[in-house]
Design goal:
It is built from two helices and four strands, in the order βαββαβ. It has 87 residues and is α+β, with helices and mostly antiparallel strands. Strands 2-3-1-4 form a four-stranded antiparallel sheet, with helices on one face. The protein starts with a strand and ends with a strand. Pfam families: NapD. Chaperone for NapA, the catalytic subunit of the periplasmic nitrate reductase. It binds directly and specifically to the twin-arginine signal peptide of NapA, preventing premature interaction with the Tat translocase and premature export. Interacts with the cytoplasmic NapA precursor.
């Protein structure tokens, strides 16, 4: 059985005064984790994991649509297929 595994990292630019609320909302999305939060610059570093690319894209779009988010930049993306190899 093969499984697909995808991970990406995002830089989220947001309004600094709302960063804590935005961070909580992003952390609530399935597969999302805010790794770094900097109130002074208004930036979050977010790691997103998903099994399918469509799910990954929907999650990125959901992050983009959080109130107070100004911009979302994809910084890194990796996709791997895992499973048993048969001769």
């Amino acid at each position: 059985m093969h499984t697909n595994w995808q991970v990406c990292s995002l830089i989220v630019q947001a309004k600094g005064e709302h960063l804590q609320d935005i961070s909580a909302r992003v952390n609530a999305f399935s597969g999302c984790e805010v790794a770094v939060s900097d109130t002074e610059s208004g930036q979050l570093i977010v790691v997103v994991e998903a099994e399918h690319s469509e799910t990954l894209m929907q999650t990125i779009e959901s992050v983009r649509n959080v109130a107070g988010v100004l911009a979302v930049s994809l910084v890194y993306h990796q996709q791997e297929e895992q499973g048993e190899e048969t001769p």
